[in-house]
Write a structure and sequence with these properties.
- The protein is α+β, with helices and mostly antiparallel strands.
- It is 21% helix and 28% strand.
- Strands 5, 6, 7, 8, 9, 10, 13, 14, 15 and 16 form a 10-stranded mixed β-sheet that branches.
- A hairpin with a 6-residue loop joins strand 15 (264-272) and strand 16 (279-283).
- The longest helix is centred in the middle third of the chain and has 13 residues, at 146-158.
- It is elongated.
Length: 301
Amino acid sequence: MREYTFVVSKEDEGVGIRRMLRRNFRFSSRLLTRLRAQKSVYLNDQVLEGWMKPKEGDIIRAVLPEEASHFPEEDIPIEVLHEDEDLLILNKQAGVTVHPTKGHASHTIANGLMKYMRETDQQFKIRFVNRLDMDTSGILIVGKNSHTQDDLVRQMHGGGMEKSYIALVHGIIEQEEFTIDRPIGRPTPDSVTRCVLPEGQGRPSVTRVRVLERYESGYTQVLLRLETGRTHQIRVHMSWLGHPVAGDSLYGGDAPELIGRQALHAWRIRFLHPVSRRPSEITAPLPDDMIRAIEKARRLR
């Protein structure tokens, strides 16, 4: 159970509690409505009956409801990069889906998190803030409550969160830095793949690309920063550019001599902590298979 508490200052007098909660914790209107309906806001340890204006020295406490997920436990490795009361940031391994789907009902990160929670004596509803493809490795963010998830999703969609990836792609990219600004969508309504569509179709999609290293073997290591977060965005944009991600068989990037999956890793994330509002930066080290692929690309001629 997560509690948010603050003491009313002289400057706060005359300000309604609803406004104070929004100002201090950036609670959404939906969450505020739910807290009031569930009688989960307290003034000096008494249940708040209305959005009154408190006095200096009053203690305001909001208690988020206890929630839980109910996926079957599985022994899926969970590598924690950062954890606190509000969020959990993981370094996801390749080859594992994030949550159960029709095609992958088990053996997911969500199943592994159920075991992790039991072992660490925690209980929270698993709320993924971002998603990674099964064969993409790297940073995966889990909100431990609805406020954390809502705030980070707002940052992600509003440009307040910076997501950077490292990839190994086919071909030698000549430009040092550039931006791909092309809409992405499904070529047909039931298609699994996505593609770049003509202007006015699909969803706006922007990927910023910077070359890190070029290899005579015909590969380039790149740093990619997402301005939007469309399904398969990096894979589609790089394939459209003629430089598909190495190992990405779905978008024309097979590279069995280097790696057995797409060489794409969610490397770094920058954001404001949803409660403290402190700038935060988390990085996930490259996995062994990508390190080996890069070393091979350097050696090949």
